[in-house]
């Protein structure tokens, strides 16, 4: 598959969950030669009280994942993601031939099955609906993933992510009226307009750049950006990320 993987939290059947997914394969999926979805469900031995994986079991779970990939993945089997919830970790694959999957998994788990209870199965899924409708993040989840990436970039430049500073945000709209309505709405939340443009190429030719003083911390920036994301969507627009100065000895800028 690809090297572009990321994780995001969610809820599955109203329970906490965490998904780790190959985002890069979405550009070429569905792959016609892999028309079957296959899975391996591992029942964790030492989950957290909320049903997610624990630090104590981390190494063991990595060992199982590595063993499955090494034994199963080839031109006819692609590993696309995993979901952890309700004291289970489900590994998802797309495969060319469903026949014999159970036997292949049993062989891959040889030496591990005495440590873990597991089950496996397949189903036809030529459209890769499980990948696109279950494993892949939604738009808001993608924004939170991008937020983490920007925060990590700031840290790499020496930022402590504890200092409040001006943070700029961009959103794009199809008309001046919708853009102005968005600016008026977010102004009630303390955002100020820095630049308004109407010369952007494409269908959404109007851009509003707004700013507010906030702390770009992992546990705070999602609330800021998702409020703007929702406001832009209410006015038929697209929120397009944020940028702020690095608060470190060497000043720089990072953006999403």
Q: What order do the helices and strands come in, and which of them pair?
A:
Layout: E1 5-12, E2 15-22, E3 36-43, H1 58-72, E4 77-85, E5 88-95, H2 101-108, E6 117-124, H3 129-135, H4 139-156, E7 165-173, H5 176-187, E8 192-197, E9 206-214, H6 221-234, E10 238-245, E11 253-255
Antiparallel strand pairs: 1-2, 2-4, 3-5, 3-6, 4-5, 7-9, 7-10, 8-9, 10-11
Helix pairs in contact: 1-2, 4-6, 5-6
Walk me through what this model shows.
- By secondary structure, the chain is of the alpha+beta class.
- The protein is elongated, with a radius of gyration of 22 Å.
- The model has no long low-confidence stretch (mean pLDDT 94).
- The protein has two domains: 5-135, Alpha-Beta Plaits, CATH 3.30.70; 159-255, Alpha-Beta Plaits, CATH 3.30.70.970.
- The protein has helices spanning 58-72, 101-108, 129-135, 139-156, 176-187, 221-234, and strands at 5-12, 15-22, 36-43, 77-85, 88-95, 117-124, 165-173, 192-197, 206-214, 238-245, 253-255.
- Helices cover 29% and strands 33% of the residues.
CATH architecture tag of the largest domain = 2-Layer Sandwich
Tell me the name of the CATH class of the largest domain.
Alpha Beta
Task: Quote the CATH topology of the largest domain.
Answer: Alpha-Beta Plaits
Question: Averaging pLDDT over every residue, what do you get?
Answer: 94
Which strands sit side by side, in order, in the main sheet? Answer: 1-2-4-5-3-6
Q: Give me the number of helical elements.
A: 6
| Portion of residues within helices | 25-40%
- What Rg is obtained from the alpha carbons, in whole angstroms? 22 Å
Biggest sheet features: 6 strands, antiparallel
Strand content: 25-35%
The domain count comes to: 2
Distance between the termini: 25 Å
pLDDT < 50 runs, ≥5 residues: none
- Could you tell me the number of beta strands? 11
SSE pattern:
EEEHEEHEHHEHEEHEE
Domain DUF695: 4-135
Protein name: DUF695 domain-containing protein
Domain Regulator of ribonuclease activity B: 146-244
């Amino acid at each position: 598959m690809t090297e572009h993987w990321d994780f995001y939290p969610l809820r599955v059947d109203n329970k906490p969950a965490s998904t780790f997914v190959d985002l890069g394969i979405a550009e070429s999926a569905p792959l016609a030669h892999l028309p079957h979805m296959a899975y391996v469900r591992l029942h964790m031995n030492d989950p957290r009280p909320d049903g997610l994986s624990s630090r104590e079991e981390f190494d063991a779970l990595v060992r199982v994942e590595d063993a499955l990939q090494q034994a199963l993945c080839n031109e006819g089997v692609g590993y696309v993601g995993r979901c952890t919830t309700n004291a289970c970790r489900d590994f998802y694959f797309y495969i060319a031939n469903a026949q014999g999957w159970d036997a292949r998994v049993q062989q891959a788990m040889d030496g591990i099955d005495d440590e873990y209870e597991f089950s496996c199965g397949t189903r036809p899924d030529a459209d890769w609906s499980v990948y696109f409708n279950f494993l892949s993040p939604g738009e808001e989840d993608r924004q939170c993933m991008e937020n983490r990436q920007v925060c990590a970039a700031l840290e790499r430049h020496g930022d402590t992510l504890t200092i409040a500073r001006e943070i700029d945000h961009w959103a794009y709209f199809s008309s001046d009226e919708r853009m102005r309505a968005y600016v008026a709405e977010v102004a009630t939340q303390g955002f100020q307009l820095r630049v308004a443009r109407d010369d952007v190429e494409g269908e959404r030719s109007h851009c509003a750049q707004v700013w507010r003083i906030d702390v770009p911390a992992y546990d705070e920036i999602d609330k800021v950006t998702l409020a703007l994301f929702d406001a832009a969507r209410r006015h038929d627009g697209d929120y397009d990320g944020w940028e702020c100065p690095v608060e470190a000895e060497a000043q720089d800028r990072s953006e999403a």
